[in-house]
C-alpha cells in the first residue's frame, strides 16, 4: 500500500512532541485540558474502536495534560447532535465531533460553543463551512475527502474488474446523509463516467446498525439482476459482510467484484478468500489521534485548525498482509 507523505501531519506530530519535551514548557503542574471526543459508532464497533484507540494513544502520550471523555453514538446523526449539545453545556476546553449530522444540524451548537470559548474540531466527515469560519480558532478536520474517496474507489474498481460500457453495477450507500453521502455520490459518478449501468440501494437505518439485516436485501437484488458484475458497499460493516452476502446468493468469489470501505478482521478474511476484491482505507487511527493533539495545541499554543486528508490508500490481496497485523490489533482500518 502506498500512502502519500503528509507534511502537515508530520508537522503537527513533530510540533506536539517538541512542545511537550522542549525546555519552554513550564515545570508547574498543569490543569488538564478537558476534551470530549466523539468515536462515532458503538463501543466495540470495528471502525469506532480504531478511532478510539487513536484518541486513547494520543491521550496516553499527553498524560495528565489532558482529560479525555469518550462519546459513543452508534453512527446515529440525531444522537450525535443531542450528545454534542450536552457536551457544549458542560463547557469543556474542546470537543472533537464527527460531521455526520451535517452543517445545518450542528451549526447552532458549534456557534454556541465558539461563543463561550470551547474549541471545536472535526473528524471522519467534514463540515466545510464551519471549518472555514472557525479555522483560526482551531477548527480543523482529520479524515478522507469524501467525494474524492468514493470516486477513487469507483474508478479503481472499474479498472481492476475490467468493466466498461453496458456492464451493471450496484452501489449500496448513504445518499440520505447530506455530507456523508458525498462518498456514495463519488462512487456512483465514477461508475457512470465509465459507462456502467448503475443501480442504487439506500442503506436503511436497520442495516446501518446491523449489516446482517441486509442479507435478504442484497440476495433479492442479485437474484433479480444476475448480470451484476460489481457491488460497492459504502459502509465498513457492509464491506466486512460482503462474503456472507455473496455466499447467501450462492455466488463464488469470482462471480462478482466486491469493493468497499474500511478494513476490519472480517474484511481481511474476505480479501484473502477472494470475495472482497478492493477496499479503500481512510486510516481511522489518525482520525482519533490527531484531533486530540489539535485541541491541545490550540489551547496551549493557539495553533489554527489543520486539514488532514487520510483517505489515500487502496487495499487488495497484493498488499493486505502489510497492514493486516495492525488491523487485527485494532490500530488500523
TrEMBL record:
Q: Name one Pfam family in it.
A: Peripla_BP_4
Q: Which UniProt keywords apply?
A: Signal
Give the signal peptide, or none.
1-26
- Pinpoint the Periplasmic binding protein domain residues: 44-294
Cited PANTHER family: D-ALLOSE-BINDING PERIPLASMIC PROTEIN-RELATED
Tagged with keyword Signal = yes
Family note: Belongs to the bacterial solute-binding protein 2 family.
Q: Which GO terms describe its molecular function?
A: carbohydrate binding
Gene Ontology CC annotations of this record: cell envelope
> Signal: present as a keyword of the record?
yes
How is this protein named in the record? Answer: Periplasmic binding protein domain-containing protein
Subcellular location, record wording: Cell envelope
Q: Which InterPro entries match?
A: Peripla_BP_I (IPR028082), SBP_2_dom (IPR025997)
Give me the segments passing through the membrane.
none
Amino acid at each position: 500500500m502506498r500512502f502519500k507523505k503528509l507534511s502537515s501531519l508530520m508537522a503537527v506530530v513533530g510540533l506536539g512532541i517538541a512542545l511537550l519535551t522542549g525546555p519552554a514548557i513550564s515545570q508547574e503542574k498543569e490543569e488538564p485540558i478537558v476534551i470530549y471526543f466523539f468515536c462515532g459508532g458503538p463501543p466495540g464497533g470495528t471502525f469506532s474502536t480504531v478511532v478510539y484507540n487513536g484518541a486513547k494513544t494520543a491521550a496516553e502520550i499527553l498524560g495528565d495534560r489532558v482529560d479525555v471523555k469518550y462519546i459513543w453514538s452508534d453512527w446515529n446523526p440525531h444522537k450525535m447532535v443531542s450528545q454534542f449539545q450536552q457536551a457544549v453545556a458542560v463547557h469543556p476546553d474542546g470537543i472533537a465531533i464527527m460531521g455526520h449530522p451535517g452543517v445545518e444540524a450542528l451549526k447552532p451548537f458549534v456557534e454556541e460553543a465558539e461563543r463561550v470559548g470551547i474549541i471545536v474540531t472535526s473528524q471522519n466527515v467534514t463540515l466545510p463551512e464551519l471549518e472555514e469560519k472557525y479555522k483560526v480558532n482551531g477548527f480543523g478536520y482529520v479524515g478522507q475527502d469524501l467525494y474524492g474517496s468514493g470516486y477513487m474507489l469507483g474508478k479503481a474498481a472499474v479498472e481492476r474488474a475490467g468493466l466498461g460500457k453496458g456492464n451493471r453495477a450496484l452501489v449500496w450507500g448513504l445518499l440520505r446523509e447530506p455530507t456523508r453521502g458525498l462518498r456514495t455520490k463519488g462512487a456512483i459518478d465514477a461508475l457512470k463516467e465509465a459507462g456502467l449501468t448503475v443501480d442504487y440501494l439506500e442503506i436503511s437505518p436497520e442495516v446501518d446498525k446491523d449489516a446482517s439485516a441486509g442479507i435478504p436485501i442484497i440476495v433479492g437484488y442479485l437474484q433479480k439482476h444476475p448480470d451484476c458484475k460489481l457491488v460497492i458497499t459504502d459502509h465498513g460493516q457492509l464491506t466486512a459482510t460482503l462474503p456472507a452476502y455473496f455466499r447467501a446468493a450462492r455466488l463464488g468469489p469470482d462471480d462478482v467484484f466486491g469493493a468497499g470501505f474500511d478494513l476490519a478482521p472480517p474484511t481481511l478474511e474476505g480479501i484473502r478468500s477472494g470475495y472482497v476484491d478492493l477496499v479503500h482505507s481512510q486510516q481511522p487511527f489518525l482520525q482519533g489521534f490527531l484531533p486530540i493533539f489539535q485541541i491541545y495545541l490550540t489551547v496551549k499554543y493557539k495553533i489554527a485548525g489543520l486539514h488532514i486528508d487520510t483517505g489515500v490508500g487502496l487495499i487488495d490481496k497484493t498488499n493486505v498482509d502489510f497492514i493486516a497485523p495492525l488491523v487485527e490489533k485494532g490500530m488500523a482500518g
